[in-house]
Amino acid sequence: MLPACLIRQPDGIFVDLSLFPVGGDFEKVIDGLFRSGERFSGLDYRLLMALLYDYDSIMDEHGINAKLRLAEDVVDFPPNRRALYKSVKVDGAKSSAEYFFEPVSMVVVVEEPVYGKPGEDGVAPVIGTKSEEMLQTTKLDLDEFIADMWLKDVRFGIDVESVAEVISRRAMTRRNIASQRNATAGFDAKMEEVCNVLRRDNAPKLLANGKADLRKFQNRFPQIESGARLLKKVARVLGKEGIRVSGQRIEPLLPKDEIDLLAMAGPGTYVETQDGEEYVLAAKDGFLSLDTVTNVVSVTETIENKGGISLKTTGDLSLSGNDFIEHGEVQGGRVVEGKNMTFRSDVYGDVISQGGFILFEKNLSGGSAKSYGGDVTSNGRVFNSVIEACTGKVSLKYAESCMILGESVVIERAVNCEIVAENVQVDSAEGCDIAGKNIQIKSSNSCRTKETVVSMLVPDSSASDAKITQLGVAIDDCKKIIEAKEQEVAQLKSDPEFAKYLALAAKIRQGTLQLNAAQQDAWKKMSAKFASFMSAGSRLTAEKQEQLTLVQGFIQEQAQLQEAQKNTTAGIQCEIAEVAGDTSVRSMVVSGGVAAFQKNKPGVIKTLLREQNVRHKRIFSDDTGSLVWNYQAEAS
Fold it and tell me: Which of 502, 494, 487, 497 is nearest to 534 (CA)?
């Protein structure tokens, strides 16, 4: 009787995996079979080892419903055959087994005939038999060898090819017949970077046309989109157990699992399991910061750089985040583009803000600051630079030899500067060219014989004045036509009979006069008589009304132009509390106002602020005194 998991079929012995005993019980099945004096014939030794020691791989490959052929049959292993196999030498660690092969023979019982006395014919008859033992040469069998080695505690790792070769030659040799399988080490859990922009890339930036921009780095400040995967935890991989030749298992060392993604996820990140893997993801758009000391990854809207900006450290920068703080120096010729930017060391390059502020905590020298839609502030000194915030506010402590453009400009001390803004406030102006609509100066002075020139930008009203005058002429022309039409109507009404007809017509319309049949006939005749008069009167009235409508439109357009002129000139004023040196104040007629004036190139602006023109009306010129001037008051 075979165990339930072993099935005898016409073509062999099969293992039914659906009935396979787990938990080491299959080893007991094999052990019981061998100890009962039976063995396999035509055994698939590799399958037997896999079933005993690597059952999971068998299941993965074949499935639980498979039936696998293990051997040709199960047969007896008689004691006389078992006696052919000698003891095996197993080392103390049971890592290998050694066997001495030699030719073998076995005692066999042979039935010999017993003869009686010969008969008359001389032939001795066989009167019986007797058993005699004799030694007969034989050879070992691989399947017997496997069963015998099992009973001698060699249950794994037999080199069946080598043993079969020795048996076939009937050689006398000592050979290592079995070796243990060493345990295979696993892998510790590890952290894997899954974002290709996780680290800085200081290679030259590649442009769309395939060329390299040597002024910019490929990825100086990694910028991440919300939801991007940053880090992945790769789970530890357990090692594969080893097997001693005795069948005992050798457990591998347990791999380490010390990766804690929660501890690595800093501000702006979160941990989530996706597709069965554990990731650190970005919680928002921003800059990526990877602290190699604490192994903490963060995503923030503000990035701080401490190494300065130069061709060697960063190249030109184009930042998409909201906030940037630079602690180091910005090299001359370098361009930094961003939004809200703060510089805590000297800047010698060009800074461009798209809709944000620019703050210089130290000096700006030989560079520029342009903010489109934001403010520019300097708490240090600004030298030989261009400052632009045409729709924002420029606030400076000290500026020298600079061009400053803004909607509003506030400077504590300005020396040899060109300043153009709607509103200008300067505590001390020395040798400056200033233009604007509302200019407030506490003290003005010259600088090395260069006087301070203040240009009050007043609108060019010549076109609107001409239009207003033209509308006035058109109104007068219409009034003349209206007067002529009125005279023609009056002439019609001067006819006594027609006047009587009009009076009767009015009474009939009002219902104060009722006509009988005879009177109605007379009225029809009278109406026919004065039909031409009525037609002419209607025509004259319509033509008069047309002119009145034109007059009303011209008057409305004229009023709008006058109101627009009033609005463009409102708030144009200049106040200088103290004139301490050569100072000139003049009015400058411009088209398009301050905004149009600022669109000129810097060289053109410098020329316009110093040129002499007959349209420039002098308001003030002296080296002492003060000034309070209002354009509206002068115009009145």
Answer: 502
| Token code pair at residue 601 | 């190139």
pLDDT digits (tens, 9 = 90+) for 170-219: 989 999 999 999 999 999 998 888 876 665 544 444 455 555 444 444 44
| Single-letter amino acid, residue 201 | D
Cβ-proximal residues to 87 (8 Å cutoff; 6+ apart), any chain: 152
Which stretches of the chain score pLDDT less than 50? 201-206, 212-220, 633-636
- Tokens 């995503």 sit on residue: 299
Written as one letter, the residue type at 264 is M
Phi-psi category of residue 153: left, alpha or beta, with phi > 0 → left and psi -120 to 50 → alpha: left
pTM of the model: 0.56
Distances (CA, A) of 58 to 67, 131, 595: 11, 52, 83
Q: Tell me, what amino acid is at 287? A: F
Helix (H, G, I), strand (E, B) or coil at 179: strand
CA distance 103 to 101: 7
Other C-beta atoms within 10 Å of 66: how many? 15
In angstroms, the CA 541 to CA 539 distance is 5
Report how far apart, in Å, the C-alpha atoms of 551 and of each of 104, 414, 472, 476 are.
Answer: 141, 54, 9, 9
CA distance 496 to 504: 12
Q: What angle do CA 538, 544, 548 make, to 5 degrees?
A: 140
49 C-beta neighbours (distance < 10 Å), count: 18
Structure tokens at 539: 């025509």
Structure tokens at 484: 């002529």
CB atoms closer than 10 angstroms to residue 341: 25
Terminal-to-terminal C-alpha distance of the chain? 129
Q: Where are the alpha helices (DSSP H) in 95-199?
A: 142-151, 160-169
Helix spans in 243-369 (H): 261-264
Domain ranges of the chain: 190-300, 472-569
Cα separation of 186 and 199, whole Å? 29
Helix (H) or strand (E) holding 521: helix 517-529
**Separation CA 530–CA 497 (nearest Å):** 9
What is each CA distance from 298 to 261, 287, 305, 306, 329, in whole angstroms? 12, 8, 15, 17, 25
Q: Is 136 helix (H, G, I), strand (E, B) or coil?
A: strand
Longest CA–CA span in the chain (Å) reads 202
pLDDT at 135: 82
> Which pLDDT does position 207 carry in this prediction?
52
Do 472 and 558 contact (CB within 8 A), yes or no?
yes
The DSSP string of 518-559 is: HHHHHHHHHHHHTHHHHHHHHHHHHHHHHHHHHHHHHHHHHH
Are 595 and 390 contacting, i.e. CB atoms less than 8 angstroms apart? yes
Q: Are 479 and 550 in contact (CB under 8 A)?
A: no
- Give the SS3 label for residue 366: coil
H or E element, residue 39: strand 38-41
Matching residue, tokens 């989109």: 225
Q: Give the pLDDT score at 199.
A: 54
CA angle 352, 356, 360 (to 5 degrees): 65
Token code pair at residue 36:
């009962």
Determine contact, residues 428/420, Cβ cutoff 8 Å.
no
